[in-house]
Amino acid sequence: MSKHLVIVESPAKGKTIEKYLGPEYQVMASYGHVRDLVPKEGAVDPEDGFRMRYDVIERSEKQIDAIAKALKKSDDLILATDPDREGEAISWHLYEVLRERGLLESRNVYRVVFHEITKKAIQEAIEQPRELAQPLIDAQQARRALDYLVGFNLSPLLWRKIKRGLSAGRVQSPALRMICERENEIEAFVPQEYWTLDAKAEREGQPFTARLTHLDGNKLNQFDLNSAELAHDAQGRLNEAANGELRVAKVEKKQRRRNPAAPFTTSTLQQEASRKLGFNASRTMRTAQQLYEGIDLGSGAEGLITYMRTDSVALAGEAIGEARGLIEERYGADNLPDSPRQYKTKSKNAQEAHEAIRPTSVRRIPDEVRNRLTSDQARLYDLIWKRTVACQMIHATFDTVAADLVPGDSDHRFRATGSTLRHAGFIAVYQEGRDDSADDDEDKRLPEMAEGDTVALHEVTADQHFTEPPPRYTEASLVKTLEEYGIGRPSTYASIISTLQSREYVEMDGKRFIPTDTGRIVNSFLTQHFDRYVDYDFTANLEDELDAISRGEKDWVPVLEDFWYDFRDRVKEKEEKVTRAEAVQSRELGTDPKSGRPVSVRLGRFGPIVQIGTKDDEEKPRFAGLLPGQKMDKITLDEALELFKLPRELGETPEGEPVMVNIGRFGPYVKYGAKYVSLGPDDDVWTIELPRALELVAEKKKKDAERFIKSFDDEGIQVLNGRYGPYVTDGNKNAKVPKETDPRSLTLEQCQELIANAPERKGRGRKGGKAAASKSGGAKKAASTTSSKATGTKSSSSKSAGSKASTAKGSGTKATGTKSASTKSSKSKTTATKSRSTSSTGSKSSGKAATKKSGGNSSDGKSGGKPGGDTGSGETPATSDTVTASGRDSG
Question: 456: which strand partners?
């Protein structure tokens, strides 16, 4: 029997940790969140101190039962979930569930944290347990409550006023606003013309270029030469004054230093992985989590990097010492600064004072472990390793030269600049990527020149330019901007971006975000009617308040009160006063010449549509969807009327089926009889004729025939060829045909057996969402559904988490810990938490508490969800359909 039961979040991490702790410890995984808010209104009750009603997530019930069974055989419980707010909350939720089952009355409970999964770090954490951190718990509960209240109130309003399926979130909506405002800037941008004049010169056989900086003794501004006439006039005068030569009037030589970038935080890792590796934020975080939880390098799994959710740029002294030793050995003493580089976190909303993301040991050279890693793991580890090593290396040194060149005795002046790398320093290992800017560190050599020298002038060129609008956001630049504004948390950006795309608020042009019509209408509605709540400063200030809660500087309930009552009143006001026509921004384009009825464009159920007539007309309105690339705010009356020329009737198939073409929700198509086939990429719905349509129909019929193997019509069973091979289906379940079986030989009985043994199709909704609705209020439910107000935990630490003694008050029972034979222990006392947990039957109990991840998807992007929040559906919270093995969104 294991004396100590250790709970982590993911099984991969658990296997690695169990290897370090020995036989007296059993390590089990919670698989992330174990509870979430109940999936219905009233989960957060502002009128009762923001009491929060929780329910065990359905997919977690079996694992909780397994943990409970193991705990009965153990002396104590060690909660070792991740070292951030959400990890703290997972520990607290599990504690509450087990306490309600009466499993903690005679057992000690400890909280341990570690920032890397190495033997030393794990053993040190076990020797230094602490109590559950109540401020972290409160901060996460406040965050979860805020996101629930926004989602359950604002999203249904969007459904009623615009269309179903939309969502708004506390952090998601400001991010959408950024993308829409950037698009507005681009559309409003008016290019300005300007010209530059360059001298193409040469000295001692080495050509170089110099830019005109002064004309007639006056320094040129960007728009001084803003026409071809002015530019060519200046060009002529310069050529005339130079007469084929330029005189060197001045030479300046300097040295420039460039220091290495700080080690990675979550945000900078996401940005750099986007620039250098082409990873989106979700892919980066998913891969980083794998590296953190442990990779088998031949002698068992071991964590390769430190915890990947952090705002800190600090490095442990031991890690710095190891890096400096490696640098001296591998790159030479001249690449090692005299003293270690120390970095300080600049983010005003730094969540926790963790270490930066770094290798657990820089002695694990990327090339030496590459064959044990996947491609993504190897590339990301290489990036983290190089950034960590480089941050402790000496600066790069550049020699810079600037020469002023004068044509003849005039007051005109050109300037040539050059730069060469004198000492690479950290650049030999790593150089930070950049967004939308040229690299100014490339070598650009100038020939040797001294004051008074002359150089040959071949020509003066005049080049026309136009100013460009600001670039659209990439994932990297959006994450950087959100962080600069203090909006959200870096660990949540992946989920925010994913939600914007899944809601079809944005689309991608290459790697850049473009708002869709739906996204722009939602943003317009929110900025017009809920301007305060999508304001950048308001959102950042709210993050500051949540941080203050996590530090124990503020109580969480007053923060929610300050937010909720004004927000609630605003929602009620807009629900009564704003019409649907105002919300969807219906725009009249003109009059249909045939019917005389108005033509308008608006957002419909499935996207932007053009409408002829109104709902009040005797004749029903006609509708047509916009084509790809057409925008609601740009479409003209003529373009709109063209859409009503569809569908086009082309004729019949040889079998007598009518053939027509039209545009549907998923693009242009040919309809023959009651069936459909999509047009090819080179086909035009306006010009396609019957012969080409029949070709598409024939191809589709051929594919359908090849797909069909056999059928048992009376029983509604078919044997078909699918993407992954032959399968049997009854319309409800699919069953793969075994490889050794000829699908043509299958009998009805064999097909029925295959279907009976096939797994049920997975639902699309929230796993666990049925729990609250389907289960009766029995004892099990009473133990799993709780509501909680502000909570508090006090306990004292002792030598080891495996031997710490404590006294806990829970459900009115005093539990006193006993000394363990394994290690020394000291007397300790745990005071009952100041909490009120109410089961679904209404009973009250008190117990320990702590919070970080409150289960579901918070607006800042952790897994789980809420209606219409940053990842919720807008109707019922989806607390587990986006949860990974660790229970968090991969972001």
Answer: 202, 245
Q: Are strands 76-79 and 4-8 parallel, antiparallel or unpaired?
A: parallel
Between 584 and 453, the higher pLDDT residue: 453
Output DSSP code: residue 98.
H
Confidence of residue 614 (pLDDT cuts 50, 70, 90): confident
Integer Cα distance of 4 and 15 in angstroms: 15
Contacts of residue 61, defined as CB under 8 A and 6 or more positions apart, other chains included, come to: 771, 784
Residue where the block lists tokens 């029949």: 694
**Is the Cβ–Cβ distance between 610 and 643 less than 8 Å?**
yes
Its pTM surpasses 0.90: no
Give me the residues paired with residue 35 across strands. Answer: 56
Collapse the DSSP code of 364 into the 3-class scheme (helix H, G, I; strand E, B; otherwise coil) and give the result: coil
541-548 LR contacts (CB < 8 Å, sep 24+) = 542/146, 542/170, 543/349, 543/486, 543/487, 543/488, 543/489, 544/348, 544/349, 544/486, 546/139, 546/142, 546/143, 547/139, 547/349, 547/350, 547/351
User: What is the distance between the alpha carbons of residues 153 and 563, in angstroms, rounded to a whole number?
Assistant: 13
C-alpha–C-alpha distance, residues 865 and 147, integer Å: 9
Give the mean model confidence (pLDDT) for residues 663-668. 80
Q: Concatenate the DSSP letters of all residues of 736-757 into one string.
A: EPPTTS-GGG--HHHHHHHHHH
Tokens 């993301």 appear where?
Answer: 357
Q: What does DSSP say about strands 413-423 and 206-215: parallel, antiparallel, or unpaired?
A: antiparallel
Task: Summarize the chain as % helix, strand, coil (round to 5).
Answer: 35, 25, 40
Q: Which H or E element spans position 725?
A: strand 725-729
Cα-only R_g, the chain: 33
Assess contact for 291 and 10: CB atoms under 8 A: no
Q: What are the distances in angstroms from CA 726 to CA 707, 710, 732, 743? A: 9, 11, 16, 7
Token representation of residue 423: 């000492």
Copy the structure tokens of residue 849: 């508490």
In this structure, what are the phi and psi dihedrals at residue 697, rounded to the nearest 5 degrees? -65, -45
Helix, strand or coil for residue 34? coil
Report the run of H or E that residue 183 belongs to, with start and end. Answer: helix 172-188
290 near 886, Cβ under 8 Å? no
3-class DSSP assignment, residue 162: coil
What span, in angstroms and rounded, lies between the C-alpha atoms of 291 and 298? Answer: 15
**What per-residue confidence (pLDDT) applies to 350?**
52
513 DSSP 8-state letter: E
Q: Which two tokens stand for residue 381?
A: 């580890």
Please report which residue ranges of 530-655 form alpha helices under DSSP H.
536-550, 556-577, 580-584, 637-642
Question: What is the distance between the alpha carbons of residues 600 and 594, in angstroms, rounded to a whole number?
Answer: 15
**Ramachandran category for residue 737: left, alpha or beta (phi over 0 → left; psi -120 to 50 → alpha):** beta
Contact 592, 641 (CB under 8 A): yes
Q: Is 292 marked active-site? A: no
Class of residue 496 by CB neighbours under 10 A (exposed 0-12, middle 13-18, buried 19+): buried
Percentage of the residues of the chain whose pLDDT score is greater than 70: 83
Q: How far apart are CA 61 and CA 771, in angstroms?
A: 10
Q: At what angle do helices 493-502 and 475-485 cross, to 10 degrees?
A: 120
What is the end-to-end Cα distance of the chain in Å, rounded?
37
User: Looking at 95, 307, 381, 505, which residue is catalytic?
Assistant: 307
